[in-house]
Specification:
single chain, five-stranded parallel sheet, alpha/beta, three-stranded antiparallel sheet, 9 helices, binds adenosine monophosphate, Rossmann fold
Length: 213
């Protein structure tokens, strides 16, 4: 099954998407993770993307479209869950073309949303494992040992763009550029909308229901 999961930063796409993908055996393709890995590895696309990411701006479309197409093609036959792509209407158009080109289709488009206060709270308290990428929250899901990942004992860190002023900018970019995707997708076959504001398990149950065939 191929799924697009979209919604504002901090709504839980990463956590929920990772869980669903691992349970269904599909590949979780998180655009932000792909970009951060490219930055870490010092690749040409990573170097080009870094300044945009640090500022909370969208990385240019041609760059992210090429990167995600390479991942989608590599995963052919497995099924994928797209998280953080597309993030604007031009990327959604590019995705439609690339899927047609590769004779692929999307089965579910799931929109997750939550009130702004929830998003701010989640983003500003978020901690991520440097080694395995697993997410924690200082208040709501703290690690057993401060600064250490429960899963792999990796070091936890706060993302550079999870600071107050960059968060505010990312939410603005979301409202201006990504939210129009709701209108773009909501009448398409396979569209579902879920409430991302509840407890992790409640949201996951809603997500499972939304992708049920
Ligand atoms: P995320 O991990 O999804 O919060 O993404 C972190 C950052 O990566 C964003 O603030 C953007 O700078 C960049 N980014 C992620 N996905 C995209 C995309 N589809 N288009 C452009 N930039 C992106």
């Amino acid at each position: 099954m191929n799924i697009i999961l979209f919604g504002p930063p901090g709504v839980g796409k990463g956590t929920q998407g990772e869980k669903l993908a691992s349970e269904t055996g599909s590949k979780h393709l998180a655009m932000g993770d792909i970009l951060r890995a490219a930055v870490r590895d010092g690749t040409a696309p990573g170097l080009a993307a870094k300044a945009f990411m640090d500022a909370g701006k969208l990385v240019p479309d041609d760059l992210v479209v090429a990167m995600i197409e390479a991942c989608i093609v590599a995963e052919e036959g497995v099924g994928f869950l797209l998280d953080g792509f597309p993030r604007n209407v031009a990327q959604a158009d590019a995705l439609a073309l690339m899927l047609a080109r590769n004779e692929l289709q999307v089965d579910r488009i799931v929109f997750m949303d939550a009130p702004k206060e929830n998003l701010l709270e989640r983003l500003s308290g978020r901690l991520i494992c440097k080694a395995c990428g697993f997410g924690f929250h200082r208040q709501y899901s703290p690690p057993l040992k401060t600064g250490v990942c429960d899963r792999c004992s990796g070091e936890l860190y706060q993302r550079d763009d999870d600071c107050e002023d960059v968060i505010a900018h990312r939410l603005e970019v979301y409202r201006e550029q990504t939210e129009p995707l709701l209108e773009y997708y909501q009448l398409k076959e396979g569209f579902r909308s879920i409430d991302g504001s509840g407890e992790m398990q409640t949201v996951y149950a809603a997500l499972k229901e939304a992708v049920k065939v």
